[in-house]
Specification:
Chain B: The chain crosses the membrane at residues 12-32, 74-96, 108-127, 155-177, 204-224, 261-281. The complex is a heterodimer of chains A (432) and B (291). Chain A is α+β, with helices and mostly antiparallel strands and 432 residues long. Chain A contains 19 helices and 13 strands. Chain A folds into 2 domains: 39-153 and 318-383, Periplasmic binding protein-like II (D-Maltodextrin-Binding Protein, domain 2, 3-Layer(aba) Sandwich), CATH 3.40.190.10; 155-316 and 389-430, Periplasmic binding protein-like II (D-Maltodextrin-Binding Protein, domain 2, 3-Layer(aba) Sandwich). Classes of the chains: A alpha+beta (432), B mainly alpha (291). The A-B interface holds A 83-84, 87-88, 90-91, 108, 112, 114, 208-210, 264-269, 392-393, 395-396, 399, 403-404, 406-407, 410, 412-413, 425, 428-429 and B 43-46, 62, 64, 124, 128-132, 148, 150-153, 237-243, 245, 253, 256-259.
């Protein structure tokens, strides 16, 4: 009995110690870094994970070693709760000096008045805005004012498994695809794969429901000439989805699952299906390029999502860096922050290792970037990405689209009914 | 009150104070803060303007509020009776005087100590199509089908309910078990002398003795089920297409992605009142019967 009690007790003490230690650890790692003497500490919050996080740290380390006036303390935050934490911290005046923000979240931050305008500071630091890609830069500007430094854009693109696609006889000698870039040609490509692939392999790794399907649909909608869901009025947008094109894009996608059956329904992990060589192709974001490259025995080619409907269009997001505003500003920190932000954009070649397309044209044209495989091929996508409509409702509209499109993909509703639901819900959200 | 008893009471205060402070700061204060928020246009960053009952009017007219409230209610209706029956059955099994007694008790209770993230990911691994355990077993016994346990509207509910039962039945089983062990042996002995069968013993001794704890289990289960959120978010994400989205997930989305804490607080208050009313009805009922 005593032995048992003792065992139990020591178990509890152990649990207590483990939890206490990890708690303490978390407290410490969040706030204190070894700031070199004389350097000004600048705290940056990022939302990256995996390869992205490692490459961002590489940029930060390079910057910290390159000078000793400033020290960037790069704090990695949990992606899922990032914006909640950022917004509440800014509300309490306890946020970072630099924050990562997606371009589509900028309208919210600008509207809440929690980020600094960068124009006058940029002049002092000597930022040359013409070095940046115009399409990307525009997604960070409001009322002709700069609010953020974009560091990349990350469109959805198309990857093929060279071996599987080659064996199916769908590769030309120069490595390009034997495919007519038309709606029917694209379907033919997958149907040929389906017939030619060996047992146990399938043509196209893709999800059925979720955010990826929405992004894929958005690419086709854009290629069909669809531009918006709502107008780009920051606070008072109106609903302008081109329902006809929206339905056409959705009906086209439905064929992949239900008519041609080139994508198995409800794949649990479409990344691993492609990575393990079970699927011949995949459509997803450029951020996966680094992952595929680092996978043994996987030979891939990355290319823009085929433009099959006439116009060029793709879904894409953009990571940007912003300077949060506080009641009491510290000009020294702000200057250092902006200097680092521009530096990070200049180091786009490091960032591109993860797969992203650098935001600076000067970086895209640089030798370091051009030497990297595939990037150059898909970097052109940056010019025609159709960014999400810039309103304070962008994140909420994203959720509404994903949820209602899921009803279409799972055949709960027809595309007509689905977009009717979208219209009702979005109009309700924006009080249109 | 005499002096001695008063001093005795005073002695308790230092022991109560630490908890009371935490309770005031983290429970009582937010209750009133939430009420204030529900009357304002309030975002994640700051308080905006006073809007009176506008948020409440919006709530009544919001189809998503009613849809998610119905989803939560459906979950309550599905889990409460099944939970009570399952917990009762398992507690009877765990109360049997066999060599496996400890094994039963342990294995029924162990899932309860796992965190919601762990049980959700276990569920996803087992339920996923093509490679999941459940479908593989089904196919190995000759059922040639590929059910989508998480993507099909009806099956998604089945999955969520079964996973929740498996996860949380242990605690309710313990409640029943303690009550079972409180039933005096004399009752069984006396009935045995009178020649009662096992079934009659169960029907006329065990069940009536379990009614009070049964009530507690039902009340706790209803309250807990109305607050369902994490396992649904993790397993189906509220999908397919919002078919399993519970009210709390909607409140969370409104508050944190739509940046509208005022309206989120309003809906939280609605849920609070639903739970309050249910609790009061249940307690009233109990008192009436006790009288």
């Amino acid at each position: 009995m005593i032995k048992k009690t003792f065992l139990l007790l020591s178990f509890f003490v152990m649990v207590l110690m483990i939890t206490a230690c990890s708690g303490l650890d978390r407290l410490v790692s969040g706030n204190s870094a070894d700031v070199p003497e004389g350097a000004t500490e600048i705290v940056m919050w990022n939302l990256f994970a995996g390869g992205d996080a490692a490459y961002m740290q590489e940029i930060v380390d390079k910057y910290n070693n390159s000078q000793d006036t400033y020290f960037i303390n790069n704090v990695q935050q949990e992606y899922e709760e990032y914006y909640t934490k950022l917004l509440t911290s800014l509300g309490a005046g306890k946020g970072p000096d630099i924050a990562v923000s997606h371009a589509h979240t900028l309208p919210e931050l600008v509207n809440l008045d929690v980020v600094e305008k960068l124009d006058s500071l940029a002049e002092k630091v000597g930022i040359d805005w013409t070095e940046y890609n115009k399409n990307i830069l525009e997604s960070t500007m409001f009322d002709n004012q700069h609010y953020a430094i974009p560091i990349d854009t990350h469109p959805h693109i198309f990857y093929i498994n060279n071996e599987l696609v080659g064996e199916a006889g769908l590769l030309n000698d120069d490595g390009t695809l034997k495919m007519d870039k038309t709606p029917s040609g694209y379907r033919d490509f997958f149907n040929t794969l389906k017939n030619e692939l060996p047992e146990g392999k399938f043509p196209f790794a893709f999800v059925t429901a979720g955010v990826d399907s929405f992004r894929h649909w958005w690419s086709y909608y854009s290629q069909l000439g669809g531009e918006h869901i709502v107008t780009e009025d920051l606070e008072n947008p109106t609903y302008v989805l081109d329902t006809e094109k929206a339905i056409e894009a959705a009906e086209y996608m439905l064929k992949f699952w239900y008519e041609d059956k080139v994508i198995p329904l409800n794949l649990a992990d479409f990344y691993s299906d492609f990575q393990s060589g079970k699927a011949a192709t995949i459509a997803t974001g450029v951020w996966s390029t680094g992952t595929w490259e680092n996978t043994e025995d996987l030979e891939i080619t990355a290319m823009p999502l085929p433009n099959i409907f006439g116009e060029k269009g793709a879904w894409g997001g953009s990571h940007t860096l912003v300077i949060p505003s506080y009641e009491e500003t510290d000009p020294v920190k702000q200057k250092g922050a902006l200097e680092f932000m521009n530096y990070a954009a200049d180091e786009g070649a490091i960032w591109a290792k993860a797969g992203h397309i650098p935001a600076k044209d000067t970086v895209v044209e640089s030798e370091a970037f051009q030497e990297m495989p595939y990037r150059e091929d898909y970097a052109q996508t940056a010019d025609y990405i159709n960014f999400m409509d810039r309103t304070i409702y962008a994140r909420a509209i994203n959720d509404i689209m994903v949820r209602n499109l899921d009803l279409i993909w799972t055949k709960e509703v027809t595309p007509e009914e689905g977009f009717q639901l979208v219209e009702t819900e979005v109009k309700d959200l924006i009080a249109d | 009150m005499n002096k001695k008893a008063w001093i005795q009471d005073m002695k308790a205060i230092p022991f109560l104070l630490p908890f009371l402070l935490a309770y005031l700061i983290f429970t009582i204060f937010p209750i009133f803060k939430g009420l204030e928020m529900s009357l304002y246009d309030w975002n994640l960053v700051r308080k905006m303007e006073f809007v009176g009952l506008e948020n409440y009017v919006e709530m009544v007219q919001d189809p998503n509020f009613w849809q998610t409230l119905w989803n939560t209610t459906l979950f309550v209706m599905l889990t409460t009776p099944t939970m009570v029956l399952l917990a009762l059955g398992l507690s009877l099994l765990a109360n049997l005087n066999t060599k496996l007694k400890t094994f039963f008790r342990g294995s029924f209770f162990i899932p309860s100590i796992l965190s919601v993230a762990v049980i959700s990911f276990l569920a996803i691994f087992m339920l996923q199509p093509y490679t999941g355990l459940v479908n593989t077993v089904l196919q190995s016994i000759g059922i040639n089908a590929e059910p989508f346990w998480m993507a099909d509207k009806g099956l998604a509910w089945v999955s969520i309910v079964v996973v929740t039962l498996w996860w949380s039945v242990g605690f309710n089983m313990i409640l029943f078990l303690t009550s079972l062990q409180d039933i005096p042996d004399a009752l069984y002995e006396a009935s045995e002398i009178d020649g009662a069968s096992r079934w009659k013993q169960f029907r006329y001794i065990t069940l009536p003795q379990l009614i009070p704890i049964g009530r507690v289990v039902i009340l706790l289960q209803i309250l807990a089920s109305y607050k369902v959120f994490a396992q649904i978010l993790l397993i189906t994400g509220g999908g397919p297409g919002g078919a399993t989205r519970p009210l709390i997930q909607y409140i969370y989305e409104i508050g944190f992605t739509q940046n509208n804490l005022g309206y989120a607080a309003t809906m939280s208050y609605a849920l609070f009142f639903i739970l309050l009313i249910l609790s009061v009805i249940q307690l009233k009922n109990q008192r009436m019967e006790e009288k």
